[in-house]
Specification:
Blueprint (H helix, E strand, L loop, with lengths): L1 H11 L2 H4 L2 H4 L5 H48 L17
Length: 94
């Protein structure tokens, strides 16, 4: 009987009484302002993480390009005949 009374009371309550101020239409309420600030904060965090992820790959690309340039400069600095003597005997070549 108790569950039935509670169910009927909830169903009889007007929907306006159950709505929050944002759902009811008060766009200038503190709850609406806080919700908008929370949404902007979450968007900011997502943008920050994506920016950090992209900058990490930019750093990796720059390091790879810098290493390739240094290898090209080192190859150009060696004489052609010295390249076969660059490796010592017993050294594995990968």
């Amino acid at each position: 009987m108790r569950k039935t009374v509670i169910t009927l009371a909830l169903l009889a309550a007007p929907r306006v009484a159950l709505a929050c101020p944002v759902c009811f239409g008060q766009n200038d309420s503190p709850l609406a302002v806080a919700m908008n600030q929370g949404i902007l904060m979450m968007l900011g965090v997502v943008a920050l993480v994506l920016g950090a992820f992209a900058s990490f790959f930019i750093v990796l690309i720059r390091r790879a390009n810098r290493a390739a340039e240094q290898m090209n400069q080192a190859d150009a600095a060696q004489p052609a005949d010295a390249s076969r003597y660059a490796m010592g005997e017993g050294t594995a070549q990968c």
